[in-house]
Write a structure and sequence with these properties.
Shape: elongated
Mean pLDDT: 86
Low-confidence stretches: none
CATH architecture of one domain: 2-Layer Sandwich
Number of helices: 2
Structural class: alpha+beta
Helix content: 10-25%
Largest sheet: 7 strands, antiparallel
CATH class of one domain: Alpha Beta
CATH topology of one domain: STM4215-like
Number of strands: 7
Length: about 160
């Protein structure tokens, strides 16, 4: 699930707190770019690429008094769910708030740049041809040694707890 899908699902649950209905909120991606992933092997698989894009979160006719609450929801979600933002070259979220004539309702548009990494696992039946092998999306089983015995003619035995 992309970060846009995750933040959208979170904000949809909070719409009643903002006194708006689901049809007053929409989100989409724009200006996406593919960036090489570096081929690093991780628990998720081999890092094939990063999908970098701008997410747009658009709210119509939100009560103006709730605009600050909406901004807080977005920032809190980013802090809790996208901790790698600080280590990546991503700009701060931007936004625009347009008030109606009586300053009671506002249209709010927030843009957030995200990077969604894409990982693949080797699969003989995979649809992705890369590096002379077949790959697919899926669960990756990376074995990491928790203990080891090193030495010449060392007896294999269970490590002490």
């Amino acid at each position: 699930m992309s970060k846009l899908q995750q933040i959208t699902a979170d904000l949809e649950q909070r719409l009643p707190l903002l006194n708006i209905k689901k049809e007053q909120f929409e989100s989409w991606q724009e200006d996406g770019t593919l960036e090489p992933g570096g081929r690093q092997e991780t628990e998720q698989g081999v890092h094939l690429l990063d999908w970098k894009y701008r997410a747009v979160l658009c709210f119509e006719r939100i009560p103006a008094r709730h605009a600050g609450l909406l901004l807080a929801f977005v920032q809190a979600w980013l802090d809790d769910n996208d901790p790698d933002r600080e280590n990546r070259p991503l700009p701060s979220p931007e936004g625009q708030i347009d008030m109606d004539d009586k300053h009671k309702l506002a249209d709010v548009e927030i843009t957030v740049e995200f990077i969604d990494p894409v990982y693949v696992v080797e699969d003989d039946n995979g649809l992705i041809d890369w590096d002379g092998r077949k790959w697919t999306f899926g669960t990756y089983d990376l074995w990491i040694a928790e203990a080891a015995v090193v030495g010449h003619n060392a007896d294999l035995q269970e490590p002490a707890p």
